[in-house]
Specification:
Length: about 230
């Protein structure tokens, strides 16, 4: 049987990189799946309210800029990207300590669309913004729905794990179309939903490409604070 060439995240065909026989994909660095909810981390484009009770005139609504920073009165810019709310509150309070006596800082994130990536056998692969709670089936439908060539029973969900490594799990979305009680996998920001072709053993090739070559920019942007240093 001829080897099936892999495709990139946008569904374009590419020649696979050679790999020794028998190695399969054991060297792909993904972690065991967990549904534990990680702390929210800020990302460029996020809007937030910065409140300084001891100096109300410094309170401000700001947006995380493309470089991951926010601009604040008196202290200039502070790195916000990939920091949790407590981390950023501490960083801003520390920055204001040179101007204020024992500053207290409260930060509140504003609601933002759930940004995920949908690739493979869908009508319009790419980044999808989901409002409110979203799941894998809803993301696929919003990305143009399944193509007739899609394997709906083995859809892959990829997520950043608590330790920063990617996690992978499979979802049977064919069952979800027929049974409203099915597990449709609630999504989190920057999750990736990949729909392989029916009858093709290409999922492993996709994962290899994803982890080594084709990490989508929004997902990689949130992988570590070192990205913004």
């Amino acid at each position: 049987m001829p080897t099936i060439a892999p495709r990139d995240l946008m569904g374009r065909w590419q020649e696979p990189a050679p790999r020794p026989a028998g190695q399969a994909f054991a060297d792909i660095p993904y972690a065991s799946w967990t549904d534990d909810e990680p702390d929210y981390r800020f990302f460029p484009g996020d809007e937030l309210e910065v409140s300084v009770p001891s100096a109300p005139e410094l309170s401000k609504s700001v947006t995380v800029q493309p470089d991951g920073r926010i601009a604040l009165p008196l202290i200039g810019t502070v790195m916000a990207a990939d920091r949790t709310v407590p981390d950023l509150e501490a960083a801003v309070a520390q920055a204001y300590s040179s101007q204020l006596l024992r500053p207290q800082v409260d930060i509140t994130a504003k609601a933002a669309p759930l940004k995920v990536f949908v690739g493979g056998e869908v009508g319009n692969p790419g980044v999808v913004d989901l409002t409110g709670d979203g799941d894998a089936l809803r993301a696929v439908i919003q990305a143009g729905d399944f193509k007739t060539s899609a394997n709906r029973s083995e859809v892959y969900i990829i997520r950043r794990g608590p330790d920063g490594r990617g996690m992978i799990r499979k979802a049977n979305l064919l069952r979800g179309l027929r049974d409203e009680r099915a597990d449709l996998v609630p999504l989190r920001r920057f999750d990736i939903v990949y729909v392989p072709r029916s009858g093709a053993s290409e999922a492993g090739l996709f994962m290899q490409q994803y982890f080594r070559d084709l990490l989508p920019i929004p997902f990689s942007y949130a992988l570590g604070a070192q990205t913004f240093q």
